[in-house]
Amino acid sequence: MAISSEQRAVDRVDAYLARSRTKAGWHVPDWAITTVSLVAVLGIWQAAGPWIDPLFASYPSAILAAGERMAASGQLSKALWSSMQPFLAGYLLAAVVGVPAGLLLGRYRVVRAALGIYVTAGYSTPLIALVPLLMIWFGLGFMVKMVIIFLLTFFPICINTWAGVRAVPKSLVEVGTAFCASQSTIMNEIVLPAVLPYIMAGLRLGIGKAVIAMVIAEFLTAITGLGGTIIKAANSFRTADMLVPIIVIMVLAVVLTHIVTLIERWVAPWQSEIAGDDGA
Amino acid sequence: MSDATASVRFENVSKTFDVSVGGSVQAMRALDDVSFSVGQGEIVALAGPSGCGKTTALRILMGLETATSGSVVVGDKPVHGCGHDRGMVFQHAELLPWKTAIENIKFALAAKGLTKVDQDRTAGRYLDLVGLARARDRRPYQLSGGMKQRVGIARALAIDPDVLLMDEPFGALDSQTREALQMEVLSIHERTKKTVIFVTHDIDEAVLLADRIVVMCAGRIREIIPVAIERPRRDIRAIRTSHEFVTKRTVIWEALHDAGSLTATAIA
C-alpha cells in the first residue's frame, strides 16, 4: 500500500516536471529569438551605414570586408596567436594557483589569518597601476603580459573559491560527521562538490578579467597581438580595421565562457538542473 | 526501566554554550542534569517548547555535540563522537544534492566500510523498504519533500544501527505526507524492532508513535509520560479516537503549556 502511494507521488512529480518544461506557451526556441534579434540589430546598423562618417564609426559590411582582408593577409591569425600565448599561460596559471589558494583560505583558520589580508588587498587594488613597475621587472615581451593577465585573473578566481568554501552548508558536513565519514571523504564528496559552482563562477569571471588584462597589456607594453592591432589601426584612423580585432576578442571571450559553462555542466550536472528548475 | 535492558542512557547530562550577547560572553545552559533511559525496542519522543534542549540532547546522543558534564551510553559504550550504532534522520533530510537517491544511501554504507557490491545490494533493499525503488537514480531536486525524507530514513536504517535518531523529521511536510510517513515509521518499527528516539513539537505525532514522551522545559526534564496504546499500531482512525490518545494528548498539552509559561516567566 505504501509503495503504490509512493508510486503515485513519483508520477505526480513527473507530471509536474513535464508541465513546468512546457509552461511557456509558445514554442519558438530561444536560439531562434536570439537570431531574429541579431539580424534586426545588424540590419539597422547596416542600413545606417551610408550616413556614418567612416572616421567616427563603421558598419557591418565594411567591418566584414576589413576582416576578410586582414584574415587573408595572415595579419589577424598572427595577432591572435601572439595574444593567445600570454592569455592562456596567465589564465591557466591563475586557475591552477587561485583555486587551491581559495580552498586553503576557506578551510584553514591559520592560512586565512596569515594570508587573507593580502588576497583582499590584491582584489581591491587597481593592479593595472602596477604595470610601469612590472615592465621594469619583466620587460616588454611575453613574460610581462603573462604576469599582468595572471595578476588580474588570480584574485577573482581565488576570492570566489574562498567564498564558496565559506558557503558550504554546515548541515551537509554534519551528515558526513554523523555517518562517520573520513575527513578526506567529507572533503571530496561534500565540501568540493558544494564549492564547485563557486569555482566555476570564478573561472567564468576570470575570462572577462583576463581578456581585459590581455588588451591593456598589449596597449601598455610592447604593442603586439590583437590589442596592438587595435592601437595601430586607431592611430591611422582606420575605424573598420580597429573594430575587427575588437570583434575577434569579443567572440573569443564568448566562446571561452561557453566552454567553461560546458565544463561546469559536465563536472556539476546537478547545479544547472537545480538552477534551471528553480529559475524557470 | 532497569539498566540491563536499556539501549540508551542519559546520565546527569549538562550542556553549556557560550553565547556572545552585545560584546560580552554569557554561558547559556541548554541541558541541566538530564537523566533518563530508553529500553531496547522502545520509541521515545522528546517534546517541549523551542529552546528547551531537546535537539541538543539528540545531537549529543549522535555525537555532533559533546556534553559539558555527564555521559550518554548506547548499549554498553559511552558516546564519543559518531558511531554506526546510531543512525540519524535530519530535520530537512539533508540529502547530498549531487548524489542520486541510491548514492545518498551508499554514501552512509561506504562510510561504514561495506564493499561496493554490498553497498549496492543493501542500498537497493532499503530503498525498496521505503517504497522508492523507482526513484533510485533521481537526484534530490527531483524528489518531493516526503520522498526526500524517505531516502533520509532509508539512509539511517541502511547502516543497521541499534538506535534510530530523528530530529523533527516530519515537521516540514504537509499533513497528509506526514501521516503517511508516521505510519511508515510504525510499520518499520514493527518489522525491525529498532529503538527509536525522536524530537518533535507535534503532540499528536508524539502520542501516535511513542511509548513514552519526555517533556522538557528550560534544559530539564519536566515529566515523562507513558502512552499505553497497544502495538502494533496500524489503525490510525481507531488510535486517534481512542480514550488513551485523547487523554494523553490533553496531559501533554497541559505539560507543554506549563513548560511554555515557565520558560516565559524565566526569561522575564
Give an account of the 3D structure:
The complex is a heterodimer of chains A (280) and B (268). Chain A has 280 residues and is mostly helical. Chain A has a single domain, classed as MetI-like fold (Orthogonal Bundle). In chain A, helix 6 crosses helix 7 and helix 8 runs antiparallel to helix 9. The longest helix of chain A is centred in the C-terminal third of the chain and has 38 residues. Chain B has 268 residues and is an alpha/beta fold. In chain B, strands 6-7-8-3-9-10 form a 6-stranded mixed β-sheet, sandwiched between helices. In chain B, strands 2-1-4-5 form a 4-stranded antiparallel β-sheet. The model of chain B has no long low-confidence stretch (mean pLDDT 91).
Structure keywords:
heterodimer, A: 280 residues, mainly alpha, flat, B: 268 residues, four-stranded antiparallel β-sheet, 8 helices, globular
Produce the secondary structure layout.
The complex is a heterodimer of chains A (280) and B (268).
Chain A: H1 2-21, H2 30-47, H3 60-72, H4 75-107, H5 109-124, H6 131-138, H7 142-166, H8 170-178, H9 183-220, H10 225-235, H11 239-267, H12 269-279
Helix pairs in contact in A: 3-11, 4-5, 4-7, 4-9, 4-10, 5-7, 6-7, 7-9, 8-9, 9-10, 9-11, 10-11, 11-12
Chain B: E1 6-21, E2 24-39, E3 43-47, H1 54-62, E4 69-74, E5 77-78, E6 86-89, H2 101-112, H3 116-129, H4 145-158, E7 163-167, H5 175-192, E8 195-199, H6 203-209, E9 212-217, E10 220-226, H7 236-241, H8 243-267
Parallel strand pairs in B: 3-8, 3-9, 6-7, 7-8
Antiparallel strand pairs in B: 1-2, 1-4, 4-5, 9-10
Helix pairs in contact in B: 2-3, 2-4, 3-4, 6-8
Distance between the termini of chain B: 37 Å
Which H/E pattern describes the elements of chain A?
Answer: HHHHHHHHHHHH
> Structural class of the helices, strands and pairings of chain B?
alpha/beta
What Rg of chain A, in angstroms, do the CA atoms define? 24 Å
Mean pLDDT of chain B: 91
Elements of chain B, N to C (H/E)? EEEHEEEHHHEHEHEEHH
Strand content of chain B: 25-35%
So how many helices of chain B?
8
**Total strands of chain A:** 0
Identify the overall geometry of chain A: flat
